[in-house]
Amino acid sequence: MLLNAAFMIIEPALNEALGYDYNAKQKLAKLENKKFTVTLTDLKLSLSLLVINNQIKLMTNAEGSDCTVRTKFDKLKSLSDASVLTKLIKSDELELEGDLGIAQAYSNLLIESNIDWQEWLSTYLGDALAHRIASVIIKLNQLLARKLADIDYTVASALTDELKVTPDNIEINQFIEDVDNLHAQTERLFSMFTQFRKSV
Amino acid sequence: MTSEFKSEEKTHFGYQTVDKNDKQNLVANVFHSVAAKYDIMNDLMSMGIHRVWKRFTIDASAVRPGNKVLDLAGGTGDLTRKFSEIVGENGQVVLADINDSMIKVGREKLENLGVVGNVEYIQANAEALPFADNTFDIVTIAFGLRNVTDKDAALKSIYRVLKPGGRLLVLEFSKPNQEWLSKVYDFYSFNILPNVGQLIANDKESYLYLSESIRMHPDQETLKTMMQSAGFDQVNYSNLTGGIVALHKGFKF
Ligand SMILES: C[S@@+](CC[C@H](N)C(=O)[O-])C[C@H]1O[C@@H](n2cnc3c(N)ncnc32)[C@H](O)[C@@H]1O
Fold first, then answer.
1. What is the pLDDT of residue B94?
2. Shortest Cα distance, chain B CAs vs residue A36, angstroms
3. Which domain holds residue B226?
4. What's the rounded Cα separation, in Å, for the pair B193 and A132?
5. Contacts of B64 in chain A (CB under 8 A)
């Protein structure tokens, strides 16, 4: 209820701020009807973003989200450097679910826009709180970039590891030949065997 | 006619007990007389907070483009307007209300705001909705259920027109969960509100009725049980502004 009251002020202001970023329109179009959610489990708090008609809608209802980041506010607060981030991901204290491309697109829209978040938020929330929230947003963004890089890495390394054991063409042809030979030998053995039985 | 039978034909109109048929007319009169000033009064009465309650309702509806929504007892169309924006050209919003004066004011307002294309206006009684079974993804009834004479019939009728998987949201005045808040609120609604009604809308009676009808409306738990009896599943509610208002949600599966 309180959040919804806050959204009534923040939502139009956010859309206005994005209006000044001439790249935003294109980015918004890609996000049409895509819902992204950040859930802070310890605070029992969800914040979802959804683009409708090139406008960001803010909501607390995470239903039908296309991509969800789930973690504890506590953990976000303690984020200080990349190593903590990695630990967080490795220890499953941050879950990512759904289409990460959407998370990335939202982060592109919000972080790489020319909006100075801290400055912007401070007009609504006061300097201290704005600083906290801005740094959490930035950390989340880093985290996301990291996770995406991580996934890229996982896929890439899986592929190279796989390649190492993948047989090449010559090996495969050799194998087929071997099978053919074996097959012929068995046939021969089999006919010898039938002949032998007849003769006894 | 037995006396029991007679008493079944009676219902509440605010604190008065009246014949069931009369209630519908009396309610109609109230809304005919407040229609023109309805929006201003809403803002004044609730000090603007009704906007947050309505926003909370949209949030809880999880409405998405393409959905079909019924804004029942839609009045001057605050919810319809927000739904229309989100459901887009592939979706549809039906504003249904029993009172043609309210519909007229609502329709004019929305058309002036450019809300056209995916909105339909239908005069209908919540107790017997003129729609096919399984029509809507979402039905809302905001500050309307307490005016309905036969609430159980209305809830059943809503259940019928919802699609399986669809949800009903009932936004309505309820019971404050703190004693002191109850007291402040009572004082406000019986001493201040009718006088503001007199001043702005020149209609003390109607606003006195509103306050009384709020008190006669079932509390949170009772409404929850009523929704369950009508067939709704996973019924729950959120208290807003200390329970002055509650949002009930239920699904049809
Ligand atoms: C207090 S207004 C609420 C309007 C709007 N939903 C809002 O929240 O601003 C209540 C509305 O309920 C309508 N109403 C009363 N009884 C009804 C019924 N049986 N069926 C449909 N609408 C009804 C009235 O005509 C009136 O427009």
1. 98
2. 13
3. 33-176+210-251
4. 42
5. 33, 64
Q: Is residue B12 part of a domain?
A: no
Q: Which CATH superfamily is domain A2-115 in?
A: SCP2 sterol-binding domain (3.30.1050.10)
Nearest-neighbour CA in chain B from A4: distance (Å): 6
Write out the two tokens for A69. Answer: 């980041």
Contacts for B39 with CB less than 8 Å, ≥ 6 apart: B76, B109
- pTM (2 decimals)? 0.79
Alpha-carbon span A27 to A30, nearest angstrom: 5
CA A39 distance to own-chain centroid? 15
Q: Amino acid letter at B208? A: L
pLDDT at A171 over 70: no
Contact between B167 and B235 under an 8 Å Cβ cutoff? The reply is: no
N- to C-terminal Cα separation, chain B: 41
C-alpha B122 – ligand 1 centre gap (Å): 12
> Do the Cβ atoms of B86 and A52 come within 8 Å?
yes
Nearest to A58 by CA among A133, A6, A123, A112: A6
Give the span between the Cα atoms of B204 and B22, in whole angstroms: 20
**Band of the pLDDT at A160, cuts 50, 70, 90?**
low
A-B Cβ pairs (cutoff 8 Å, strict): 32
| Domain contains B126 | yes
Amino acid at A82: A
Question: How many structural domains are present in chain B?
Answer: 1
Does residue B188 sit within a domain? no
CATH number of residue B105's parent domain: 3.40.50.150
For this complex, say whether ipTM is above 0.95: no
Residues B86, A57: C-beta atoms closer than 8 Å: yes
Q: Which of residues 86-115 of B touch A (CB under 8 A)?
A: 86, 88
Spans of all domains in chain A: 2-115, 119-192
Q: Where are the beta strands (DSSP E) in chain B?
A: 10-13, 16-19, 68-72, 92-97, 119-123, 136-142, 162-173, 233-240, 245-251
pLDDT tens digits for range A77-127: 665 555 565 666 677 788 888 888 888 888 888 877 667 777 777 776 677
Strands (E), B143-244: 162-173, 233-240
